[in-house]
Design a protein that fits this description.
The chain is mainly β. The chain has one domain (42-187, 200-446): Porin (Beta Barrel). 7% of the residues lie in helices and 51% in strands. The strands form two sheets. The chain has an 18-stranded antiparallel barrel. Strands 16-17 form a two-stranded antiparallel ribbon. A hairpin with a 4-residue loop joins strand 6 and strand 7 (171-179). The radius of gyration is 25 Å and the shape is globular.
Length: 448
């Protein structure tokens, strides 16, 4: 993978040099009007605020309810203040964030820390090549494998170095690398995150190439490494997991056809060999305010009838499941939420968007991809149906209301795989969210 990345970077530098040489040899360029004043490069500095609340009533969200389970109600809150500096040679973003639940802390002695959601600098070599350094949100493709996960109150970002190339026509490629440590070690590189799990090393290559007005290709190759658990000299071993694939998209008038596929190999976080896959064919139709999407996601899983040989459970890396596998979030932590059985998720979405209104209705069917045993017998693969409704309304560009309501009908198979709940109960969940995003100020000034 490293060799391929180096060759790709060299290729883009050579192509850029050739393009520049060709431009220099052309003699038919129109002469510039030197009587006009040269326009100065404008730098900008903007300040953006965000305040978001979400009140939720849960009676089966994430976990299936039992017969006597009582619902939950609460309000979560997120505040952000972002400074965004843009210039010809350097961009910089600093975004402070506070995330909490109402009543979580004593308002007379608040203890919830304010931290940086993003804090990065991006120096630019020219209008095509830049380097982003620091804490940054990482979004690739449709966010299936890398997402900012804005639904989560604290969202998601990575401490990383990123090389970015855009030819401003039809090609974009990026290389991202990260290496995590728990503290400033004097010796060794032992990584011991406290209270959470995370990769020790991450390397990503992304390519987006529009090969034709109707055809587009995206590829994503990922190598993430996890330190071997346990004491002693185990920290010297890093288990590397590799994920390779991408998608091809065809657009024609109102129709879009997409095929996404990934293969996962290497070793999982405890050292087992991996052989897993992910498939997602989709057909989309768009006409004025309407969009209809029909597709299916397939995540491979273990066959419980066979002796364990390799880890066949696909993990959707650092993406988001909320927008893909149902808003009830039954399946967000892979492969735990599937009990290693895998997932087949056919879906049908209807979206309507006009002016300030955005309405979505989404339906999902859930099947286990592979055999799952209960009391020594293979259970049925059909796990249930989910229906989600969402309404967004923008009163102004700075004020937005979002309302959602979801329900599901589950089977005994889902109860067995989730290891909780009552198939006779109907899980449901509703929420209302307000989002305020005023721009506090924007200043432009001449570059020096």
């Amino acid at each position: 993978m490293k060799k391929c990345t180096v060759l790709l970077i060299l290729f883009f530098f050579v192509q850029e040099a050739k393009t520049q040489a060709t431009k220099d040899t052309l003699n038919h360029k129109p002469l510039q009007d030197t009587t006009k004043a040269t326009q100065k490069q404008q730098n900008s500095l903007s300040f953006q605020a965000e305040l978001r609340t979400r009140s939720e009533f849960r009676d089966g969200y994430r976990n299936l309810p039992f017969g006597d389970t009582l619902p939950a109600f609460f309000t979560i809150h997120r505040t952000r203040l972002t400074m965004d500096y843009r210039s010809k040679k350097l961009d910089m973003v600093l975004s402070l964030q506070e995330s909490r639940t109402w009543g979580q802390v004593d308002p007379r002695n608040p203890s919830v820390p304010i931290s940086f959601f993003e804090a990065y600098a991006e120096p630019k070599l020219n209008d095509k090549i830049s380097f982003r350094i620091g804490r940054q949100r990482v979004i690739y493709d449709n966010q299936r494998l890398f997402a900012e996960n804005d639904w989560r109150n604290s969202a998601n970002a990575h401490d990383a170095f990123r090389f970015i190339y855009k030819n401003n026509k039809n090609l974009q490629t990026e290389f991202l690398t990260a290496y995590n440590q728990s503290s400033e070690n004097i010796f060794t590189s032992k990584y011991q995150p406290s209270g959470f799990s995370n990769y020790k090393t991450l390397n990503v290559h992304y390519l987006n190439y529009k090969i034709h007005p109707n055809w587009n290709i995206q590829t994503l190759n990922v190598a993430d490494g996890f330190q071997k658990s346990g004491g002693g000299s185990n920290y010297k071993t890093t288990f590397m997991r590799f994920t390779s694939g991408g998608n091809i998209t065809y657009n024609k008038n109102e129709w879009t056809a997409i095929m996404m596929a990934y293969y996962q190999y290497g070793k999982d976080s405890i050292g087992n060999k991996i052989s897993a896959y992910f498939l997602n064919p989709e057909l989309k139709w768009t006409k004025k305010a309407w969009t209809v999407r029909l597709g299916a996601e397939v995540m491979s899983g273990q066959d419980a009838k066979k002796p364990f040989d390799k880890d066949n459970s696909f993990v959707a890396l650092y993406g988001v499941a909320h927008r893909f596998n149902g808003n009830m979030d039954f399946f967000t932590t892979f492969p735990t939420d599937l009990n290693n059985a895998g997932l087949i998720n056919p879906y049908l979405f209807f979206w309507y968007q006009k002016n300030k209104l955005y309405l979505r209705m989404e339906s999902h069917l859930f099947y286990s991809q592979n055999n799952f045993l209960q009391d020594g017998a293979v259970i049925k693969k059909y796990m249930g149906f989910e229906n989600d409704w969402r309404l967004n309304y923008k009163f102004t560009k700075d004020v937005e209301l979002e309302y959602g309501a979801c329900w599901a009908a589950v089977t005994n198979s889902m109860v067995a795989i989730k290891k909780s709940g009552d198939a006779n109960r109907i899980p449901w969940w509703t929420y209302v969210s307000f989002k305020f995003t005023p721009q506090l100020g924007k200043f432009s000034f001449d570059a020096k």
